[in-house]
Amino acid sequence: MLVPEIAVAHDSVTAAAGFNAGLLHPWLPAEQTMSLLAAALLAGRYCGDRPMRVLAAFSIAFVAGLAIPPSTFTLSTIGLCLMGLALAASALVALNASLPAVAVVAFTAAAGLLDGIASAPDPDHWDVVAAFVAGNVLRAALIFSIPLVVADWFIREKRWQWAKIGIRMVAAWIAAIALLMQALILATP
């Protein structure tokens, strides 16, 4: 009781705690949430009539990222990559750039891979890894799919011009936040 426990990133002990840790963990690091939102807005804006291709690329890359050991990259490197992706994806949406389908798939796959790497379970918790991964998959699917579907619905189904402007404004805010977060990551010793 008087001796401190070992500090780990994911303090899960049971399968239920592992699922909750996987589901809730990436909501706290803003880098992961920002990159997923930016990639989802990009996909929703430009995926056209093939959102399943984008979702498949994201899902496969996310699972591949989970397989990469957490110690492969430093957290600041992953954070910079996530913020760079968020900045690029959201800036493209905000600027209303025209993109080929392969670029949209590449951005979403990169977001999935980086999010998977950032969400990989600690090696000390392999007893709950399945529950942790299930929670992570659900969390990533929600953060990525909901903005993608909403943006796609506003733009393609409803064809509301105000929605295009609104999505571009949200993307511009994400780009600004990503730029500031990159500066903070680089300024931290």
TrEMBL record:
Transmembrane segments: 52-69, 102-120, 132-155, 167-187
UniProt keyword list: Membrane, Transmembrane, Transmembrane helix
Keyword field contains Cell division: no
Keyword Transmembrane recorded: yes
Pfam families for this protein: HupE_UreJ
Superkingdom of the organism of origin: Bacteria
Protein name in the entry: HupE/UreJ family protein
Organism: Hoeflea poritis
Lineage: Bacteria, Pseudomonadati, Pseudomonadota, Alphaproteobacteria, Hyphomicrobiales
